[in-house]
Design goal:
The structure holds three protein chains of three kinds. By secondary structure, chain B is of the alpha+beta class. Helix content of chain B is 17%, strand content 19%. The relative contact order of chain B is 0.20. Chain C contains eleven helices and one strand, in the order H-H-H-H-H-H-H-E-H-H-H-H. Classes of the chains: A alpha/beta, B alpha+beta, C mainly alpha. Bound molecules: ligand MGD (2 copies), iron/sulfur cluster (5 copies) and molybdenum atom.
C-alpha cells in the first residue's frame, strides 16, 4: 500500500490492442488523387483509415486530408434530406421533402425541357469523378450544355498536351521518378497526383538528381527543390522558349528523336495568302509529306524508310513550295526575340541563370544518357536492342494553365521536352495509359446545328477536340451553340467546356436563355466562380418583365451545406464517399501508372445515417423517369434498377467496353474488354477495390511508337488503331483556325474575333503577356496575386472538417518582406488588396520566398458566415480572405469596346492567375476583420447542432472499454 | 516512477528528414487519427466548429523560412515528443504519472494517476506535451506503442502511424541506441542532430538537416559548350545561330 | 507563461504564510515576542490560514484535484513533490509549536527546538516552491540563481510585514521586529531589482535558430504555424504582455510591494497605536497586492522555449 503510493504500479500497456473487427478497402475521396484506403471498423465505428499498401496510386501512404476522412464522415455540415426552396433564393429557406417528391420535381422540370429544347438544360458538374456517367447522361438527355470542372481548372494543360504529344501532365503522365536525373517543375503547389508526386520527389532527391522548381512562391514542393526559380507570374513561356533558343543555338537537341517521332520533318506549305499556307503538304491520300534526302523526292512522312530533310525549301509536284516544320521552328526560336536577355526582361530571371539551366538540361539529357538493355519493336516493326533515355523530366500544372497564355506556354514546355528527346523514354516524362492517344484525339464535340433534337439523344459525347473551324459548335451566323460558348470563336478548343461562364451567360440570356441549371459538386456561389459577388447577384436576379428568376430553375447536389446550397431551388443531398458505390473508370480520369492501366471502385463502408442518396443513383433514377433511351429497357422499365452499382457492372459503352476494365466477361477472366460480369464488384472488393493491368518491360517506353504497346492499346480500346502517334510540335489544327481568321474557308470568325484568332492560333508555341496585366496600367496594379492549394485542404470542402480546419482556419495575404517594407506594411497588419474589379481585406504575412512582385494566399479558406455549419464568428468568415472577390470574369475594356472573358483565347481556360492588384495598408480605424463581409447564411434547420467538444475515439479508449465493454477487449 | 531509468534497453525514436519534408501535415493528421482511438484515446477537440477550435495533437508541422533574400530557404518542420534520455518532463512530475520505459525509452503518461498539474509541459522545451482539458490529464506522443508491438498489425506496418503515412518518406523509426540500425546509420551519414542540445535533454529523436542546395553555381555545367552531346547531335559544334541549320544538313532516317 | 490565478494566489499567500510562520518561530525562539496566546493564535491563524488557503487554491488548477494526494509521492526527483511533502510536513511542527504557544503558553525551553524546526521547514518549503521554477530549464526567467532568493526574500518581507502588523495590534512592537522589517524590505527590494535586471539584460539563451537547429543556414523565422487558432501550448506558454503594460505593472508592483509599505511601516512604527496599527496593516495589505501583481508578472514575463516554434524570436 505504502509502496504502491510511492512507487505506483507500472502502467499496464496494451501493446496489441485489436485495431478492428473488420477492414474494408475502398478509394479515398478527400481529394481527386484517388488513393486506395483501408477502413478499419471497430464496434461499428470507423476506427482508423490508412493507405492501402498494395494500391498502385499511393502504395500505403495517406495525406492529411485522407487521414481526416473520419471527420468528414462525422461532419455536422452534412446535408440530411432533400430540400425544396420556399423563401427567396440565397436565403436558405427550405422545406424538407421526400426523395420521391424531389425526384418527381426534377423529372417534371427536365421532361419539359427535353421535349422542347434540350439545350435549355445546362448540366454542369464540378470536382466530379463520375464524368463517364454524367457526360453520357447528358448525351442521352440530348443537351450539349454539359461539362465538368476542367474548363476553369486546367484545360490548358490537357488541350496543349493532347494536341501536342497525345498525352498530358495532370495525373495523365508522370516523370520516370526512378531514373530521371533532372526534374523541372513548373507552377505546381500540390496537384491531383498529390501522393505520387511527394513519393516521386523523394526518389529524385535521394538519387541525387537535380530538382528545379519554377514558381513565384517557395513553399511545399518548391521548398525542397535544389533550385527555386522565383519567376514573375505568367512569363514561363518566355523562359521556356529562351531555353529552346539556347539549346537550338548549341545544337543540343535530339535529332534522332525528332526525326523518328515528331512532325517536325513534315513539309509545311509556304504560300502566303493562300488557303493552304502553313498547312502540311499532303499526298494524294492525305498523307503528310517530307522531303526524302535519300531519293531527293517528297515522300510519305510516316514511312519508316525515309530520310527526311530538316531544312531547305522544296518544290512539290503541284508546284507549291514547302519547308520542313523543323526549319520554321528553328528559325523562329533562334531569333533574338527569344534570347535569354529578352526572357530575362519578362521573367525577372537573370540571363546567366537561363543559360545555365539550358546547359544543365543538355548535360542531363545527353551526357547522362541512359541505355537500357531492353529489346523492343517500333511501330514499323524494327527491333531495337536498347532503349535510349534522356533523363530529363518535367511536370507542370495550374501555375502554367491558369493564365491566358497557358495553352501556348504548356505547348512550349512539351516542345522543350520533345527537343530533348525526353517524352516516354527512360528517365523522361512517361505517359500513363490510356495515353498516348492521337494528337489530338479523334473525338469531335457534338452539338452542331441539326445534331440536337427534342427528346433525342446526341450522337456522341458533348466534349471533344476540334481539328478546325468546321468542328466548332456555332450557328450559321457564328453565334455560339453552347451556353458556355465553348467551341465557339470565343474559345474554339474549349475541350473541357467552360463551367465558369455558365452562370453569367445563363443570366445574360446570351446566347439564349436556359430553363434548368443542374449542378453537381461545384460551389459556384463562392470559391469556384470569378466575380463571386456578381455571381450571387446573377443567381438571384429577376427578369423585370416577368418577375421570374433570370435563371429559372436550379437543381443542385452537394453532400454538405456549402454556400451554393442556399442558391438552389431543389437540393439533392448526396452521401459522403464512405457511403456509396463509385467507379474510377478508364473512360473518365484514369488512375493508371506508367506501369499499367488501372481503375478502381468505392464501396459503401458505412450506411448513411440520414435521408440521403448517392447522386449517381439519383441521376440514373431521374434518367429512367425521363425515359432516356440508355436508361430504360424496351418496355420502359428502368434498365439499371440497382442504381449506380448496377450501371457500373452492366453498362457497356461499346461492345465489351464498360465502366470497369478488370474481371470482365461471364467468368471474369478477361481484362480490358469483355462482356459484363455479374460478380465484377466482388472481384474488385476481393482485390482491394482496384484493378491493375501490367505492361511488359518492352512496352514501357516509346509507347507512341512502340508496336507492342500500340497493339495492346487497341486491344484495350484505348486507341482505334496501332499507327504511330506522331508528336505534333507544329500544330496543323491551330493553323486551320488561323487560316479561317485570314479569310479562308466557309467557316470564318466574326470580324471582332478575327484578329484574336489570327494572333493566338499560331501553329508553334508563342508567348504573350497575360491579358489582364496587358490591359491595365502597371503603375496602378503593380503586383500579381495568386492562390495556392494548401496540402491539407481540398478547396472549400474541408472547412467543415474538425481536424483540418485547425491547420488552415484562416489565410493571410503573403507579401514579400522587401515589398512590404516599401509599402510600410508590417507582419500582421490589415491590408487591402485591390484589383480593377474588387477588393479584399486581410492580414499581411511577410515572407522571403515569394517573387517581389507577387502576393498570394491559400485558396478557398475564406468562407461566407453561416455556411458549412460553422459558427458565424469562425475565423473562416472573420479573418480569412477569398481571392475570388478580386477576380473578374471579364477583362477590362481595352479600346475595342469588347469585354472578353478572362480566359485563354484558345481553350477558354479561366485565367485565375492573371490577376493584378495593388496593396495598401488598411486605415487604423477600420474593423479588424476581413472583407468583404456578406450577410450570414441562415443555418439549415435540418443540420445537427455544432458540438462544443468532440471526443472522437472515446469509445475506443481504455476507460470507456473498462466500463462499457464487458471485460474490456484485448 | 519519475526517476529516469539509468539506461534503457533500446532507444526507440524517430528520425525526421528535413531535406524532403514538404510540410504536408499528413503525419500530424494521421497521428491524430490513430491516437484518438489508441492508447491515449480520445484526443479531443474543443469548439471544433467555432471561433476557437483547439485540439490535442501529438505531432504538429511548422514551416520556417531560414536566411534572407536569395540565400533563404523554406524548411518544413514536424515536431513531436523526442523521447529524451534526460527527460526533465519525467523528473518534475510529482505523481509518477510521467515515466520513461526502461525497456525501450518511450516516455509515457499514466493517465490514471496524472493530476493534470501541467508541470511536465512546462518542463518540456519542445512544447511536446498536450493537455487534454476535457479529461484533465496530460497526453503526449506514445511513439505509437500500441502499433509498434501490435501483433494484430502486419509486421511491415508495425511502425508509428506518422511514419507509415508520410507520403515523402521523410520519417523513419528505429532503435537509435543500436549504432548498426538503419536509423543510426542515417543519422551518422547525414549529420543528424539534436534540438536544443544546450539544455541537455538528450533527445532520442534526430533531425536530418536540409542538404546544401545545388542552386545557383551548383555542380552542373555552366555553359552549353561544356555539355557534350552524344550521337549524331554531337556534330553540333557551334553556338552561332546561323551555323545551327548548317550542321543538320545530312541524312537522318526515321 | 500564462499567469494562472490559482498558482499566483498559492505562491503569494503561502509565501507570506510561511514567512510569517518562520519569523514568528525565530522571534519566539529568540524570546522577542509576547507569550500572549491571542497574539499567537492570531499569528497562527494568519500564517496557517494563508498557507492552507494557498495550498487549496493550488489544487484549482489541477485537472484532477481529487488525486492531489498523489503529488507527494515523487519527492526523490520532483521539486513539486518535495514542496508538497514539506508543506504537509511543516504542519506537524507548526501545529505542535502553536499548541505550545497558544495552549501551553510556552515557547521557550524544548519548544524552542520545535520553533526552529518550524522555521527551517517553512523556509525549505518556500525554497522548494522556488526550486520548482528554478528547475525549469526551458524558462530563462526562472531557471537562474535569483529565483530562490526572490521567493525567499518576498516570503521574508511579506511575512515580516504581517508580523510587524501583529506586533502593533497587540502592542508588542519592538525594535528587533522593526530592524528585521527594514532588513527584509531592503533585501526584498535589492533582490527584486537584481532579478529584473537579470531577466532584462540576459540575452535569450535559446533562439529560433537553436530551437530548430537551422541556425547555420541563416536567421530562422516562422512562416506558417501548425495551427491557425491557439492551441494549449500557446495559451499556456505563449502569454504575451505588451511592453507598455509590463512597464506599468512593474511600476505598480514596485510601488505596492516596496515603495509604499516600506516607508509606511517605518514612519508609522514609532507612532501611537492609532496610527501605527492601521499603518502597519495597510502596509501589509498593500504589499500583498504588490506581491500578487509581482507574481503575476513573474509568470507573464517569463518566456518558454516552446514558443520559439510558434514565432517567438527570443526565449
Ligand atoms: N481563386 C481561385 N479560385 C479557384 C481556383 C484557384 O486556384 N484560385 N481553382 C479553381 C479550380 S482548378 C477548381 S477545380 C475549382 C474547384 O471548385 P469547386 O469545384 O467548387 O470545388 P470544391 O470547393 O472542392 O467543392 C465543390 C462542392 O463539392 C461538394 N462536395 C464534396 N464532397 C461531395 C460529395 O461527395 N458529393 C457531392 N455531391 N458534393 C460534394 C462540396 O461540399 C462543395 O460544395 O475552383 C476554382 N477556383
Ligand atoms: N490538397 C489539395 N490538393 C488538390 C486540390 C486542393 O484543393 N487541395 N485541388 C485539386 C485541383 S482541382 C487541382 S486543379 C490541382 C491543382 O494543383 P496545382 O497545379 O498544384 O494548383 P495550384 O495550387 O493552383 O498551384 C499552382 C502553383 O503555380 C504557381 N504559379 C502561379 N502562377 C505561376 C506562373 O505564372 N508560373 C509558375 N511557374 N508558377 C505559377 C503557384 O505559386 C502555385 O504554386 O490540385 C488538386 N489537388
Ligand atoms: S491524396 Fe490524400 S485526399 Fe487525395 S485521395 Fe489520396 S489520400 Fe485521399
Ligand atoms: S508527412 Fe512527411 S512530408 Fe508530410 S509533413 Fe509529415 S514528415 Fe513532412
Ligand atoms: S520532448 Fe518533451 S515531453 Fe518528450 S521526453 Fe523530451 S522533454 Fe519530455
Ligand atoms: S500533468 Fe500529469 S504527467 Fe504532467 S507533471 Fe502533472 S501529474 Fe505528471
Ligand atoms: S510516433 Fe505515433 S504518437 Fe508519436 S507523433 Fe508519430 S504517430 Fe504520433
Ligand atoms: Mo481544378
Amino acid at each position: 500500500m505504502i509502496r504502491e503510493f510511492f512507487k505506483p504500479a507500472p502502467e499496464q500497456i496494451e501493446t496489441s490492442p485489436t485495431v478492428s473487427d473488420e477492414v474494408k478497402t475502398t478509394t479515398c475521396y478527400m481529394c481527386a488523387c484517388r488513393c486506395g484506403i483501408k477502413v478499419h471498423m471497430l464496434d461499428g465505428q470507423i476506427r482508423y483509415i490508412e493507405g492501402n499498401p498494395d494500391h498502385p496510386v499511393n502504395k500505403g501512404v495517406l495525406c492529411a486530408k485522407g487521414s481526416a476522412g473520419i471527420m468528414n464522415h462525422y461532419s455536422p455540415a452534412k446535408l440530411t434530406k432533400p430540400l425544396k426552396r420556399i423563401g427567396e433564393r440565397g436565403k436558405a429557406e427550405f422545406q424538407e421533402i421526400e426523395w420521391d417528391e424531389a425526384l418527381g420535381i426534377a423529372t417534371g422540370w427536365l421532361d419539359a425541357v427535353r421535349r422542347s429544347d434540350p439545350r435549355k438544360l445546362a448540366f454542369f458538374t464540378g470536382r466530379d469523378q463520375s464524368q463517364a456517367l454524367t457526360g453520357w447522361w447528358a448525351s442521352q438527355f440530348g443537351t450539349p450544355n454539359y461539362a465538368a470542372h476542367g474548363g476553369f481548372c486546367s484545360v490548358n494543360m490537357a488541350a496543349a498536351g493532347l494536341y501536342t504529344i497525345g498525352g498530358s501532365f495532370w495525373e495523365f503522365g508522370e516523370p520516370d521518378w526512378d531514373r530521371t536525373r533532372y526534374f523541372m517543375m513548373f507552377g505546381v503547389a500540390e496537384d491531383h497526383d498529390s501522393n505520387p508526386i511527394k513519393a516521386g520527389l523523394t526518389k529524385v532527391k535521394r538519387s541525387g538528381a537535380k530538382f528545379v522548381s519554377v514558381n513565384p512562391i517557395r513553399t511545399g514542393y518548391s521548398a525542397v527543390a535544389d533550385e527555386w526559380i522565383g519567376i514573375r507570374p505568367g512569363t514561363d513561356g518566355m523562359l521556356v522558349l529562351a531555353l529552346v533558343h539556347e539549346l537550338l543555338r548549341a545544337g543540343k537537341v535530339d535529332l534522332d528523336y525528332i526525326v523518328r517521332y515528331t512532325n517536325l520533318p513534315w513539309l509545311v506549305i509556304r504560300d502566303e495568302g493562300a488557303a493552304g499556307d502553313g498547312l502540311f503538304a499532303r499526298g494524294a491520300d492525305g498523307e503528310p509529306l517530307c522531303w526524302d534526302g535519300a531519293t531527293g523526292q517528297a515522300a510519305d512522312a510516316r514511312l519508316a524508310g525515309v530520310s527526311p530533310a530538316l531544312k531547305g525549301e522544296f518544290s512539290l509536284a503541284d508546284g507549291s513550295r514547302a519547308v520542313p516544320a523543323f526549319q520554321i521552328m528553328a528559325q523562329r526560336y533562334l531569333d533574338e526575340a527569344y534570347s535569354p536577355e529578352a526572357a530575362a526582361r519578362e521573367t525577372g530571371i537573370a540571363a546567366s541563370t537561363i543559360r545555365r539551366l539550358a546547359a544543365e538540361l543538355a548535360e542531363a539529357a545527353f551526357e547522362r544518357e541512359i541505355v537500357l538493355e531492353q529489346r523492343w519493336t517500333d511501330w514499323a516493326g524494327r527491333t531495337h536492342d536498347t532503349m535510349i533515355g534522356r533523363p530529363v523530366s518535367m511536370h507542370a500544372m495550374r501555375g502554367i494553365s491558369a493564365h491566358s497564355n497557358g495553352f501556348h506556354t504548356c505547348r512550349a514546355i512539351h516542345m522543350l521536352q520533345v527537343l530533348l528527346g525526353s517524352i516516354d523514354c527512360p528517365g523522361g516524362f512517361l505517359y500513363k495509359p490510356p495515353f498516348p492517344k492521337a494528337a489530338p484525339p479523334g473525338l469531335r464535340p457534338v452539338g452542331r446545328p441539326g445534331e440536337i433534337n427534342p427528346a433525342t439523344p446526341m450522337a456522341g459525347p458533348p466534349l471533344g477536340f476540334p481539328q478546325g473551324p468546321e468542328d466548332l459548335l456555332i450557328e450559321a451566323d457564328g453565334a455560339p451553340r453552347r451556353i458556355d460558348k465553348a467551341f465557339s470563336w470565343d474559345a474554339p478548343i474549349a475541350a473541357h467546356g467552360m463551367m465558369h461562364m455558365v452562370i453569367r451567360n445563363a443570366w445574360a440570356h446570351d446566347p439564349y436563355p436556359i430553363d434548368v441549371l443542374f449542378m453537381y459538386m461545384a460551389n459556384m456561389a463562392w470559391n469556384s466562380s470569378m466575380n463571386t459577388a456578381g455571381t450571387l447577384k446573377m443567381l438571384t436576379d429577376r427578369d423585370e418583365a416577368t418577375g421570374e428568376y433570370r435563371i429559372p430553375k436550379i437543381i443542385y447536389s452537394d453532400a454538405f451545406f456549402s454556400e451554393m446550397v442556399a442558391y438552389a431551388d431543389l437540393v439533392l443531398p448526396d452521401t459522403t464517399y464512405l457511403e456509396r458505390w463509385d467507379c474510377i473508370s478508364l473512360l473518365d480520369r484514369p488512375i493508371c501508372s506508367p506501369e499499367g492501366p488501372a481503375d478502381s471502385i468505392r464501396q459503401p463502408v458505412v450506411a448513411p445515417d440520414r435521408d440521403v442518396r448517392p447522386f449517381q443513383d439519383a441521376l440514373i433514377d431521374i434518367g429512367a423517369r425521363l425515359g432516356l433511351p440508355g436508361l430504360v429497357k424496351e418496355d420502359g422499365s428502368p434498365r439499371y434498377p440497382g442504381g449506380y452499382a448496377d450501371y457500373i457492372v452492366n453498362h457497356e459503352r461499346a461492345p465489351g467496353i464498360g465502366m470497369l476494365a478488370g474481371w470482365r466477361g461471364e467468368t471474369g477472366d478477361s481484362h480490358g474488354t469483355g462482356g459484363a460480369n455479374p460478380d465484377q464488384l466482388q472481384r474488385y472488393i476481393d482485390n482491394g477495390c482496384f484493378w491493375q493491368g501490367e505492361i511488359p518491360p518492352d512496352q514501357r517506353y516509346f509507347r507512341h511508337a512502340n508496336r507492342g504497346y500500340l497493339e495492346y492499346a487497341v486491344s484495350m480500346g484505348f486507341v482505334g488503331h496501332a499507327d504511330q502517334i506522331v508528336l505534333q510540335i507544329y500544330s496543323e489544327p491551330l493553323q486551320r483556325f488561323r487560316l479561317a481568321a485570314q479569310g479562308h474557308g466557309d467557316v470564318q470568325p466574326p470580324d471582332a474575333a478575327r484578329n484574336r484568332i489570327e494572333t493566338y492560333f499560331d501553329p508553334l508555341p508563342i508567348w504573350y503577356a497575360p491579358f489582364e496585366g496587358a490591359a491595365l496600367e502597371e503603375a496602378e496594379y503593380p503586383l500579381h496575386a495568386l492562390t495556392q492549394r494548401p496540402m491539407a485542404m481540398y478547396h472549400s470542402w474541408h472547412s467543415q472538417n474538425a481536424w483540418l480546419r485547425q491547420i488552415h482556419g484562416s489565410n493571410p495575404i503573403y507579401v514579400n518582406r522587401g515589398t512590404a517594407a516599401a509599402l510600410d506594411i508590417e507582419d500582421g497588419d490589415w491590408v487591402w488588396l485591390t484589383s480593377h474589379h474588387g477588393r479584399i481585406k486581410g492580414r499581411a504575412k511577410l515572407m522571403e520566398g515569394v517573387n517581389g512582385a507577387t502576393v498570394w494566399t491559400w485558396n478557398a479558406i475564406g468562407k461566407r458566415a453561416g455556411a458549412w455549419n460553422l459558427a458565424p464568428d469562425a475565423p473562416e468568415a472573420k479573418t480569412s480572405v477569398l481571392l475570388n472577390h478580386t477576380i473578374s470574369d471579364l477583362l477590362p475594356e481595352k479600346g475595342d469596346g469588347m469585354r472578353w472573358s478572362n480566359s485563354d483565347p484558345v481553350t477558354g481556360q479561366a485565367a485565375w492567375y492573371d490577376l493584378r492588384v495593388r496593396l495598401e495598408k488598411a486605415a487604423g480605424d477600420e474593423a479588424q476583420e476581413s472583407g468583404p463581409q456578406f450577410d450570414a447564411i441562415r443555418p439549415l434547420d435540418a443540420l445537427p447542432a455544432r458540438p462544443a467538444i468532440l471526443r472522437y475515439g472515446l469509445r475506443f479508449s481504455r476507460a470507456w472499454r473498462r466500463t462499457h465493454v464487458d471485460g474490456g477487449r484485448t | 516512477m519519475t526517476d529516469l531509468p539509468t539506461r534503457t534497453g533500446r532507444k526507440l525514436g524517430l528520425v525526421i528528414d528535413l531535406d524532403i519534408c514538404v510540410g504536408c501535415h499528413a503525419c500530424a493528421v494521421n497521428c491524430k487519427e490513430w491516437n484518438t482511438g489508441g492508447h491515449s484515446a480520445p484526443l479531443p477537440d474543443t469548439d471544433p466548429f467555432g471561433a476557437h477550435a483547439a485540439g490535442v495533437w501529438f505531432n504538429r508541422v511548422h514551416s520556417f523560412e531560414v536566411g534572407d533574400g536569395a540565400e533563404s530557404r523554406t524548411v518544413h518542420f514536424p515536431r513531436s515528443c523526442l523521447h529524451c534520455e534526460n527527460a526533465a518532463c519525467v523528473e518534475v512530475c510529482p505523481t509518477g504519472a510521467s515515466y520513461k520505459r526502461a525497456e525501450d525509452g518511450i516516455v509515457l503518461v499514466n493517465e490514471d494517476i496524472c493530476i493534470g498539474c501541467k508541470l511536465c509541459s512546462w518542463a518540456c522545451p519542445y512544447g511536446a506535451r498536450e493537455y487534454d482539458e476535457d479529461a484533465g490529464v496530460m497526453k503526449k506522443c506514445t511513439l505509437c506503442i500500441d502499433r509498434i508491438y501490435n501483433e494484430n498489425i502486419p509486421e511491415a506496418q508495425r511502425v508509428p502511424a506518422c511514419v507509415s503515412t508520410c507520403p515523402a518518406n521523410a520519417r523513419h523509426f528505429g532503435d537509435l541506441g543500436d549504432p548498426e540500425s538503419d536509423v543510426s546509420r542515417m543519422v551518422e551519414e547525414r549529420g543528424g542532430y539534436d534540438l536544443i542540445p544546450e539544455l541537455r535533454y538528450a533527445p532520442v529523436n534526430k533531425y536530418l538537416p536540409p542538404r546544401p542546395r545545388r542552386g545557383p553555381g551548383g555542380d552542373g555545367p555552366r555553359t552549353l559548350a561544356a555539355a557534350q552531346t552524344p550521337g549524331r547531335a554531337a556534330e553540333a559544334e557551334t553556338e552561332e545561330p546561323d551555323g545551327f541549320l548548317g550542321w543538320i544538313d545530312r541524312l537522318l532516317s526515321r | 507563461m500564462h499567469p494562472a490565478y490559482s498558482v499566483i494566489l498559492f505562491t503569494t499567500a503561502s509565501g507570506a504564510g510561511y514567512g510569517l510562520l518562520a519569523m514568528m518561530a525565530l522571534f519566539a525562539a529568540g524570546g522577542a515576542l509576547p507569550i500572549d496566546r491571542w497574539f499567537a493564535l492570531s499569528g497562527f491563524i494568519l500564517a496557517l490560514g494563508g498557507i492552507t488557503f494557498g495550498l487549496l487554491a493550488s489544487t484549482f488548477h489541477l485537472g484532477h484535484p481529487e488525486r492531489a494526494w498523489r503529488a507527494i509521492s515523487q519527492w526523490r526527483s520532483s521539486w513539486l513533490s518535495r514542496e508538497g511533502v514539506l508543506a504537509l510536513g511543516t504542519y506537524v511542527p507548526a501545529l505542535a509549536f502553536a499548541w505550545g504557544w497558544v495552549v501551553e503558553q510556552e515557547y521557550g525551553g524544548s519548544w524552542r527546538m520545535i520553533a526552529v524546526i518550524t522555521a527551517v521547514l517553512s523556509t525549505l518549503t518556500v525554497y522548494c516552491t522556488a526550486m520548482i521554477y528554478t528547475s525549469l530549464r526551458p524558462i530563462r526567467a526562472w531557471h537562474n540563481h535569483l529565483t530562490v532568493p526572490l521567493y525567499l526574500s518576498i516570503a521574508f518581507w511579506t511575512g515580516m510585514l504581517w508580523l510587524n502588523a501583529l506586533t502593533h495590534v497587540f502592542g508588542a512592537h519592538n525594535p528587533n521586529v522593526g530592524m528585521m522589517l527594514v532588513v527584509a524590505g531592503f533585501l526584498g527590494f535589492y533582490v527584486k531589482r537584481k532579478y529584473w535586471r537579470l531577466i532584462d539584460t540576459n540575452p535569450s539563451w535559446v533562439t529560433p535558430e537553436g530551437a530548430t537547429g537551422l541556425g547555420s543556414l541563416g536567421k530562422v523565422r516562422l512562416l506558417d504555424p501548425p495551427n491557425t487558432q491557439e492551441c494549449y501550448i500557446q495559451t499556456e506558454m505563449g502569454f504575451r504582455i505588451a511592453r507598455e503594460h509590463r512597464v506599468k505593472l512593474r511600476r505598480i508592483a514596485f510601488v505596492c510591494l516596496f515603495l509604499v509599505p516600506l516607508p509606511l511601516s517605518v514612519f508609522t512604527m514609532e507612532a501611537g497605536p492609532l496610527v501605527a496599527i492601521p499603518g502597519a496593516i495597510l502596509a501589509a495589505v498593500i504589499a500583498m497586492i504588490g506581491a500578487l501583481v509581482d507574481r503575476w508578472l513573474f509568470f507573464a514575463e517569463a518566456k518558454h522555449t516552446a514558443m520559439l516554434y510558434w514565432g517567438a524570436e527570443t526565449s
